[in-house]
Amino acid sequence: MSTIFSKVLFEMCGDIAVITLNDPDRRNALSRQIVREIFKALELSATTGARAIVIASSGPAFCAGANIDDLKDGWMERADPLTDPALLFQRLVEDPRIVIAAVQGGALGGGFELSMSCDLVVAADTAWFALPEVSRGVIPNTGLALLQRMVGSRAALELILTGRRLGSEEGVSRGLVNLVVPRESVVEKAVSLAQDIVSKAPPGAISAAKRHLHEHAGYDWERVQRSVTDVPRAEWQEGLDAFTEKRDTNFEPFWRAAAPT
């Protein structure tokens, strides 16, 4: 069974639902439309009886993060439950089934957060991860909740503040990636891993193990949603304008304004 939404593909591979972000021209950026369609695909996976989920992408990039046009249009200030990436990430974390990310290319910002929201990550040897938000006057609100429990607070803060790239092999050593495979076999391996898990354990045990793992972590999802608005609007507006205008950011006025008098 396969279903084609506008920007997302849905396919059943045996008992496993494969949800593929399919907007390669925009590097699968998390637009309002893509987020809405992933929600729909997740609902479809439930009605078709999928026992596990694989999140994949088409094209060279896994996901380039939030869609800049949507961000500039006030996305952070007017959250819509049907298109809010933070709520999508929460939905994946709280799904009773195992969710595996098949990362074939760059996972930036919200793309990195998308992979963190999955239970397991299979990455291509050429895949990489980065959180560039702070350099644009934005914060990775879901990453702030999830990342430190995976890598520790100091490593998390370094990755968030520097925005540096982290390759697949370092991802394994940091606990962010479970398996590294050749690019052409990423989805196949993710589906195989999911099938292996559901063939050896019943749904109740999988659901309980996943639920209690995350409940022990104690994520505050209301804070995740709220925190994105803590950055002053003028700062993130400058960051996003600079990105779309292909120029360097100018945050110096904000530093001068914050200096003691």
Topology:
Blueprint: E1 2-4, E2 8-13, E3 16-21, H1 32-47, E4 52-57, H2 68-72, H3 85-94, E5 98-103, E6 106-108, H4 110-117, E7 120-124, E8 128-130, H5 141-151, H6 153-162, E9 166-167, H7 168-174, E10 179-181, H8 186-200, H9 203-217, H10 221-227, H11 233-244, H12 252-258
Parallel strand pairs: 3-4, 4-5, 5-7, 6-8, 7-10
Antiparallel strand pairs: 1-2, 2-3, 8-9
Helix pairs in contact: 3-4, 4-5, 5-6, 5-10
Written account of the structure:
There is one protein chain. With 261 residues, the chain is α/β, with parallel strands linked by helices. The protein contains twelve helices and ten strands. It has helices at residues 32-47, 68-72, 85-94, 110-117, 141-151, 153-162, 168-174, 186-200, 203-217, 221-227, 233-244, 252-258, and strands spanning 2-4, 8-13, 16-21, 52-57, 98-103, 106-108, 120-124, 128-130, 166-167, 179-181. The strands form two sheets. The protein has a seven-stranded mixed beta sheet with strand order 1-2-3-4-5-7-10, with helices on both faces. α5 crosses α10 (221-227). The N and C termini lie far apart (66 Å). The mean pLDDT is 94.
